[in-house]
Design a protein that fits this description.
mainly alpha, SRF-like, two-stranded antiparallel sheet, 76% helix, transmembrane helix, TF_MADSbox, nucleus, protein dimerization activity, DNA-binding
């Protein structure tokens, strides 16, 4: 049967505390060495005893090199988080601006549709009326242009149909003349033979 789990709390007896520190420190240094060898990881371990004595372990590279990498990473991470927070602030501000713009456009659209006019004063109503008149002029102008284009297209088709009709009439007349000429020619030949 295995050992039970040790409850973690400060060891009150000073001698027992020192013995436990020494044993656990050795175990921790051993584990740091094992993880560096097994996983090819750079490890730096710094331990200060209760009396202030320094114990350290670093892999093949020096402690200064590992701590330098840590500082560079930490400062870069802090700068990234700071810029990310600034960016989030900018996005929030942009979101608020776009939301206000959308609300203004929605309100304007409702006013143009004749809805929610109660909140408008006389000046705003006159501006709305002016906008509607301008819009109506544009709509009428576009409608007239479409109608003129449609009329021009119909006139062009009518002219083409008239020309086609005239050509067909000419062909019919030519056929009738040819038939009449053949009839007359056959009539004279038949009369002369008798």
């Amino acid at each position: 049967m295995g050992r039970g789990r040790v409850q973690l709390k400060r060891i009150e007896n000073k001698i027992n505390r020192q013995v436990t520190f020494s044993k656990r420190r050795s175990g921790l240094l051993k584990k740091a060495h094992e993880i560096s060898v097994l996983c090819d990881a750079e490890v730096a371990l710094i331990i200060f005893s209760a009396k202030g004595k320094l114990y350290e372990y670093s892999t093949d590279s020096s402690m200064e090199k590992i701590l330098g990498r840590y500082e560079n990473y930490w400062y870069a991470e802090k700068a990234f988080i700071s810029s990310d927070l600034d960016s989030q602030g900018n996005w929030c501000q942009e979101y608020r601006k776009l939301k206000a713009k959308l609300e203004a456009l929605s309100r304007s659209q409702r006013h143009l549709m004749g809805e929610q006019l109660e909140s408008l004063n006389i000046r705003e109503l006159q501006q709305l009326e002016h906008q509607l008149e301008i819009s109506l002029k544009h709509v009428r102008s576009r409608k007239n242009q479409v109608m003129f284009d449609s009329i021009a297209e119909l006139q062009s088709k009518e002219k083409a149909l008239q020309e086609q009709n005239m050509n067909l009439e000419k062909q019919v007349c030519n056929c009738l003349l040819l038939t009449w000429a053949q009839f007359l020619l056959l009539g004279f030949i038949g009369f002369a033979v008798m």
